[in-house]
Structure formats: C-alpha cells, structure tokens
C-alpha cells in the first residue's frame, strides 16, 4: 500500500497551501489556500487535478484547514460554494470562528480596491462555514469508520493546528504553519510522539536559525516608544485578526510596565469586535495569557480606545491600529495620507505585502513620494518600521520536529526552492530520513506500513513480556555493580526487546492465532514425537587387565542404584554399596564407572566451556547422554570396529536440538585413548580426590 | 472483570461510585462526597452564647425521648453544633487506596472527595478527568473550603482526633432521622466521615489530576486506552471508554441528550463496545416528574407538566423503528421544553415576588441552571420594567463566570454559535457590564453594602442550607412572606429548613433533569449495542422486561461484587507485513490448517500489541524444525528415504522390548532407525546421513 501525496499549492513556494493525500482509500485535502501574489487563475489551487469531472464529493473524504490565514483557507469558499464540494470540512474552534472574518475582510478589500468581480460573496462565506465541523485539540475525530484525525497545537496563530490522520495502520502528520518557540500570546507547538509514515512540514525558514523573538519584539516596542516619546503618531495597518491582537498585547503590556498614558486606538468597530473572539478563545493562547482569564482577560486591553475620525488630526502622540493591512485602501490609507508627510510619525509594516499595495511600495526601497492615482501624490517623510518577527519555526525547529517524530518520509512544502533543497539534504544526511519537496501539481508516492491482525494466547504474550521485565531488572542490577557478573545483561538491554518466538496457527475460516510452543500440541490434541540421535561409540582403551569384563556385563547386571533417574555426582560411593549387595557387581560396575570417569575427565578438557554433569552411570552434556554400553549386541553399534585394539563402547544419545554438539562429542570420543594406569586402586579414594577438584 | 458498586449515589450532587477491576487494573469510578449529609449540622448560630445551655438541656431531653421510644418532631436544637465533617462514599474507606491504579471522574461533583485520598502518601493512582471538569471541580472544592472556613472561625481551631459529636454516646442521643444520616441504617456509614481538606490539599489533588479533552486518547501503562466523551450533564461532564487488550468497557454515567449549556450527550462514540456499565440512577431517585411544591401552609403551585413514565416507552419505540427517527425522538421528546417550562415557572415566581417587594434567594448549585436563570430572569425583569439588582455571592462566582465565557469547546451547539457570531457565550457577560448583575465574594464585602438594595435576586451557595452566604440571607428573609426561596427537589426541605423556622417565605422546590429519562434507557442501549450491560438491579424492575436487543443484562446492586465473564481469551496482536512475508507455513495433517514458526520483537505501544521483525539477519541454523508429533510410519519413511538414495529394510520382529520397530539402513552407509509410539531414535555412522534421515523423518511426521 502506498500513500500518494499531490501538492496543489505551496510546492516550492509560499502561498495557496493545498496538499491532497490519498491514504488507505481515503483522500484528504489539507488546507485550501489562495495565493496573495496572483490575481489570475493561479491564485487558486488547480482543483481539476483532484477530479476532472468535478465530482469532488466522491473524490475527497474530507478537507482539513490548519489555520485562518488566507494562504491556507482563502480558496475554501470558492471550492465549496463555486466548485460545489459538499463533504465535511474540519478546523479548530478558533479557526472556524476567525476564518470568516479574514475571508470577509479580504473579499471587501478586493472588491473595494480593485473593483474586480468577486470570486465569492459574503453569503458564500457564511454558507461555507456552516459546513465546517469544529474540533478541539487532541480530540480524536472519527471522520468515518476508518479515517481518524487529530489536531495538535501549532502555535502559529490563534487556533493553528497540526493535523494527524490515520487510516488503518498508515498515518501521517501535516503541520500547516507552526512555531516551535512560544511567543507572548501563543505557546509552542506540541505533538505526541506518533508513529507516522509521512510528515508534511512547512519550511518557510528552511535555512534560517533565528535568535529569540523577544529581541525583535523589543526592537518594535522601542521604535514605537521612541516615536510617541517624540510626540509622533504611530500607524499600524493590520488585518483585523492575529497580528493586531498580538501587537496589541505587546503594547498594552509595555504601556503597563512603562506606565505610559499615550492612547492606543483601534479603528472602527471591527478590530474591537475581533477582540471579543480572542477573549472567548483565550484558552488557545499561551499558558501565561490563559491564566489571566479570571482576573483580567489579557484581551481586555486596558489602554485601548476606539478611534474617531476627528482624532486623525488631533494634536499629540498616539498609536493607531487601522484596517486594512498593507495600506491597500480604506481607513488605513486615509490615515496614511494624513500622517505620512510628517517625519516624527511612524508606520509599521507587516513582513509581507501584496504587490500593488502601498505597503509593498514602502517596503521596496524608501520612496519619498508615492503616487496614489493620477491626481494624488503623497509625500512620505515618516519613518518606516518593518516587523520582522514571524510566527514560523526556524530550521532548528523543523529539524527538531522531524527528529522527534522520526517519520519514515518527509515532504517539505511552504518554502523557497533552494532553501528546501538544502533542508532536504540535512534531513537525509543527519536523520537518515527520505525527504521530498515536490513542485506544485507534482505527486509523490511513498510506501506505508501495514499490519496483519491476529490473535495471541495469554501464554504467548506472557512469555513475550516477562523476559523483558527480567532484562530491565538485570539492567538495574548491572548499573548498581558495574563490572560484576552482570555485564552480560547489557547487550540484551540495549537491544531493548528480546526476540520472541511463537507458532502461528492458521485455520480455515478462523482468525490466525499465535500460540506458545508448549500450547500447540494440546491444542491440536496430539502427543509429541521425540526424535533422538543415538550412537554407540567405541573408545580405545589401554592397560586393561580385564578386557573381557564388559562382555560379561549384561542388562541385568546393571546396579539398581544406577538407573537413569540418578541424582547428580554428589552421590557418594558408600550409597552405591548400600544399594547393591553383590560384590562382583560392584567390581564390574566400578570398572564401568572408571571408564566413564576417565571419559568425563577427557571431555572436560576438550569442552572447557560446557557444563558436564557426572552421574554414577552416565554423563550429561546438555541433552547428550553417555553411558558405558553393557550390551554387546547394542543396536546402535552401527560402526563396526575393524581394528583389533581393545575398546570400550559408550552408548550415546542426544536430542535433535543438540545435533551438532552431539556429533562433535562423538568425533572427539572416537579420537580418544583412555589410559587406565593403576587398575587396582580402590576407586572410592581416587574418586574423592577427583570430586574435590570440581 | 469485576465490578463493585460502592454507592448508587443520590441525585446530581452525589453521583454513583464504583470500583472496577479491568485487565488487571483497579479503577475507581468517581469519588464524590455526600453534601446532603451536612444537614445534621447546625449552621453557624447567630446567638451562640444563649444556645449552649439550651443545647445540653436538649440533649438530655432527647435521651429521655429515646428511652420512651417516642420521637418528637425534629427541632433546630437537635442539630449538631460543631465544625462539620464531610461524608465520603460509604464503603470506600474499607478499600486500600494504595491498590487503586486509576481514578476516572465523570463530573465536577464526582471529584469533590478526591483530596481526601490524594493527601495520603500511599495513594498513587493516576487520576483522569476532562479539562473543564478539573477547572470546575477545583473551584467547587475551593468554594467548599472557603465556606467551611466560617465554621472554623466560629468554633475555633478543630480539636485533634475524634470530635465529640462522633462519639457513640452522642450519636445514640441523636434523633433517629439525623442518626440515619450520620451512620446509615446499620451504622456502617460511620467510618466515612472525614474532616474537610485544606486549600493546599485541593491544590495537590489538582496537580495529581491529568486533564483531558473530549475524545482525547490517553494510554495508561501502554496497555489501556482511555477516552472521555461528553455526557451533557454539566460542562466537562463525561462518559468514559476504556479499551483494554481483551475488553472494551464503557462507563455510562448520568447523561443528558440535549443540554442547554454543556455539550450534549455524545452517545455515537459509545457504540459497539463490549461492556456498558449503566450508572445513571437519576430516573430512580429523581422521579422524572416535575414537582413544584410550596412549603407547608403556602399555596401549592403545581404546574401541569406532562411527565412521561416507563409505560410511554413502548409507544416511543414502536413509532420509531429506524435509528434516525429514534435519535430525533430522543432529543425532541420535549425534555427540553419541559426544562424550559420549569425555568420559565421559576422566573415567573421570582418576578411575582419582587413585584410584591420580596427578595428571591436561589441557593441552587447547578451551574447550568444558574446561568440560564440569570439570562431568563434578566429578560423577564426587563420586560416587566423592574429595576431589581441581581447578585451572586460566592467566593468563586467571579472565576466561574469568567471561566464560562472562555470554554466554547465544552458548550452546546447554540452556545458555540454565539462564538461564531462574536457574541459572549452567556448572557451574564452583558449583565455584569451593564451593572445589572453584581458579583461579590462574601456577604460582608463593603462594596456590597454600598449597592445593596432590596428587593433583589440573589444566587448564593450552599444548597444544603448549612453553610455559605445563603444562610445569612435566609435568616434575614425567612420571616418575610413576600420573599421566595428556590430549592431543588431531592433536598430534604424539612431538615434543611429546620434551623430557620418558623418560615413565612415561599419555598419553591423544583427538580431538574439530571440524567437519561426512564423511557429512553432501553432504546438508547439498543442503539449502543453492547454485548453486555451491567444494569442496576433496582432499575431492572422498572424496565419493561422484553429484552429485544442482543445484549445480555447483568444486574448489580450496592456493595456487591459481580464478576463479568470474559468475552475473549486472546490478545489482539498486529503482525508487521515483512514478518508475514518471512513466514514459512506448513500444512498439517490433522485439520484444515497450516502452522508457521514466528519470530519477532514484541512491543506494547499505545494500547496496541505489535510483533515486528527483528532487524538482525535471520539465523538459518536456527530455522530448524524443533517439534514433531504423530507416529512414524516406517514404510512411508523408507519410501521417502529411497527418493534420496538411501535404502534399507524394515525389521518388525526385532529385538525391541517396547513394541519398537526398526528400519535398518544399509545403503549408502549403515544406520538404524528405531521407533515406538512417541520416540524415534536415529543411529547412523556419520553426521550427514543422520541429518538427512532426520530431515526425512520430519517431512514424514508433522513437525514445526
């Protein structure tokens, strides 16, 4: 399965953000923005790429809008009302509340200033907003049975969110615009450590590392303060939302701290009205601002008054917020005309102005005269301050986020091509994550993870989990006494999860089930069938007086005490005597015992790493059992002894688990020469001295 | 899974409390306190000195009364004069709180008892509640603490240890009505009394609580996924869903389909879960009927409000077979209009009183009712051209009201619409600005005296009529028959008003919707389609017995532990696809099945069990068959061996003692295969041959 990502806007550019992601049969449009720099059809994303027939309801599962900026929501009324998309649209509560204001503001400016035909009407905006489903942060929204979406705080503007979308086992995050450092009214972006296949992130400042925003805020405050201290008037042309409140919080707070009494005005009712929204949505601001709700809502600006037209030429300093931003007409232009000719006045401009606006002209160089139209010319002598802080994350923030989420793939949007290329290089080199930055109308396909659902029995799960606990315990102990025997546990801990083994049972018409190995046979109702290897191995012996002894031996002569269920070598010879009254048998078996013990000594030398258990009648090494074969006709004597050398037969058996080990022992045994130097020494004494050695 | 219902609660202010054992975790569902029990205490007396002697004399009398087995009517002097203690859920103190892993909170009322436990060192449970619940709950606790301070101030610092009134002799002398409140029917509830927590304890409790949004997923210990969904009862009130590896559990607390202030009941998100704990007792204790009684000799005002009963249920369901219709009927059957009627009635009573020159005291504690009454009364006042001030006197009023205007995400549709049109969410914002509504922390505020004007309308805690500013106003107005007191039904008016007797003022008692109505319970459960429903035994009788749905009902009652049978034994595990591709399945003879060995790393992450392939290259020497079963057919084996160029002969009448059979291999080399029912021994001259024989045996046997 693949995730397909069609970039309709903000591909290698800033503007008209719009990405359509197909994931697990669902198709989600992230953002539906307009490009402020174009007036022709390039201002909207090319929606025909989604569906040529224009049947958008079937082509898209839902639309998700990240925040209320026009380059993210500007084309939405056009898409829903003019293009006819009727499916669900999701955005956060603040975005739903504030987007229509932005859209209406923009619509008015376009119609008023340019006199152009409107792309959508006020009713369109209202009708469009009615289709919007508002979501809260972290709320897991079930769009349909399979598609789940969730918003995370992005800190870019009030209500800005990153969105997580999940279908089946595939998941992605689309960041929208975000800010990784908190500012005066918004917190920093926050997201859970999600497992995602794809991260689509903005990259406005793909190569910039910025210092703190506070420094630039201070610069702005200083400029304003200097101007009003000199008796000048400050004009701040802004849109009604976002920047106005952000700057106003700055100023109001500064006024409070500096004990200033110079009036701050908001033009007309519009911006004051907008404050109402901010007051109700204070829960979406930074913690510091949020905490003020009970005592005094931070958006209840103390020093702000509303502006009367008559105040334009009133003497004395003041600060005025006027709409529209970019001085594209309306009231801000009216005031600009009056205030621009005086050098003690100050105009602050936002970071971005659309070409053709006075704001744009002021930013490109410092003109002294601006032609408004054929008849009017404005003398510009006032100071210009350009606001340089922008609530976007810088390169470090992007890298931090990518590293934190560790997605399998990254797609960069909303940035400038050369910078994106360099960021892509960094992401691939430093983080080893594959990265793309498609151009507009390009499609990127990436593979996605998938899981198969099966059942697992309790025993299997317990077996998987318990060893992990042990390894954690080992880790703790290991840390307490480093260098002790516990050092072995470290590699196990580093790998984290140990490898678990089970058996998958797939039955027809039933869900596959993982069982623990020990559960399989009872489940199938069968008994285990063991397979063993056996080999009756002749071993050469020397200095044997009574070489026929083992021929005398028979099955029945084997001492009772030497049955297979013997305890380990701790058993003393005295107990053997008690167990067996027949002296001859003791002698015979003691001889066997002797050979066995000699073998034990040899094997111990050859396999120093292995733990060999010595029992009176046999030796054990893992599953490998060996005893002296008393039976001349032992069926496992498959190898015929050709040489006439004296030999003792050792009958060996081992499980298939130790197949290799068994053969290794056999080959060692075949090369052995057991020497029995003092045949008449009472072995009990010798044995005692030997036992003390192990 | 095990469930113990610790208490079925009592109405809106005292929600039910359960102890749940799910997937090995012990979960406490709600931790309320029974504030109605405060009525056994006397409010702060005004003339304390004069009363002391009277009090002790009274005690003697009541002792006599007891011996004579003649109960006199209760008198104000019967009430306990001491710093009140607070009554927690009755048997909760019998549980070891250190074993609680999780606490879930359904509403602000459900968390008032938490600081009693969070202050204990051994308490280590993780507490989850919605963000709005935590904020409201915190304010309600702080309000309790500040109201309680008045008692402390009056009686002086509390004596250490056991208070006098809790001694057996004293309790024995209490009139039976009070004694039942104090100790329960059988004296079992005596242990649940606790001295109130402090502001520091409240703070500690809030810090230990993790606040969530609606539908936010929280992963407890990696294995449980816990989510809250709106219940509509109050702002932030929630129903909870716990998804465990083997069990999906829903805790359905008192819910209101279409609230007029809080976000409505989100029942869609509760669909398809395995077990539902139905914990809405409101239809039992509330009696959905709307009773508006006047107190004692006063005019009985009973508005005609059609109150649906259980028998209406069948008509409700028959007419609405499809789900959509039912949903419509559920939200439309007029529970809203009934509620509006009630508010309108209270409103008109209030207007009547102020017209006559009487003041109105509303000590109701329900936020939704207060907010709506504020809006409605102000409209009525305006339309009747009355210039009567409204006051809210409470330590936390200011904070609560400003909070209400900044939580649009937690409100009902209509209120959210106000956000979108840029209006304040509730009417009180405008009223405060227009100085029609005044907020004061205490009754003694100097500013209050400056603007105080009667008649007026006052909202003030506490509904128990034992603490808070309300008692002072009640004393002031109780003798004035023009005045009006609005109480909630469920409060025992006789006991509550005892200290303020004789009472001339009108008393209006009104019940408000505080849960799912009886006739909607069964249709709702049919929509939710759980496999199992844990249902209150007491409520079972009220239900129409025809269980048409596929769900199984399990009755539960107070202080009884029920074990819920397991729905599934297996864990659900996700296998990574690359792991699936590595599988080498083998068909087995017995059944229509195939089996394969599986090897991977086991993870538990966000409530999911994952098995992903190990990154190390697969060790081939290990990929051997390790387990064989069935019995070995030597003829088949010989055939298979011959294909590999190995030949031999079967020797049935061999020397084996255990019915063993032999296959003697002579080509290419000598080997012997000996087999009994469950054991085969391979003996070959060399390793290669042995290995080939073994492989062949595995192919003939079932093996993995």
UniProtKB/TrEMBL annotation, chain A:
Coiled-coil region list: none
Segments forming domain Beta-Casp: 244-362
Domain called Metallo-beta-lactamase: residue spans: 15-232
Domain of life: Eukaryota
Cited Gene3D superfamilies: 3.40.50.10890, Ribonuclease Z/Hydroxyacylglutathione hydrolase-like
Transmembrane segments: none
UniProt xrefs under InterPro entries: Beta_Casp, INTS11-like_MBL-fold, MBL, Metallo-B-lactamas, RibonucZ/Hydroxyglut_hydro, RMMBL
Molecular functions per Gene Ontology: hydrolase activity
Places the protein is found: Nucleus
Nucleus as UniProt keyword: yes
Keywords for this protein: Hydrolase, Nucleus
Record GO cellular component, one term: nucleus
Record family assignment: Belongs to the metallo-beta-lactamase superfamily. RNA-metabolizing metallo-beta-lactamase-like family. INTS11 subfamily.
Protein name as annotated: Cleavage and polyadenylation specificity factor subunit 3-II
Originating organism: Nelumbo nucifera (Sacred lotus)
UniProtKB/TrEMBL annotation, chain B:
Any single GO BP term: snRNA 3'-end processing
Location of this chain's protein in the cell: Cytoplasm; Nucleus
Record bears the keyword Zinc: no
InterPro entries: Beta_Casp, Integrator_9su, RibonucZ/Hydroxyglut_hydro
One Pfam family per UniProt: Beta-Casp
GO CC, any one term: cytoplasm
Segments traversing the membrane: none
Primary location: cytoplasm
Domain Beta-Casp: 370-495
Superkingdom field: Eukaryota
Keywords: Cytoplasm, Nucleus
KW Cell inner membrane (keyword) present: no
Annotated protein name in UniProt: Integrator complex subunit 9
Native source organism of the sequence: Nelumbo nucifera (Sacred lotus)
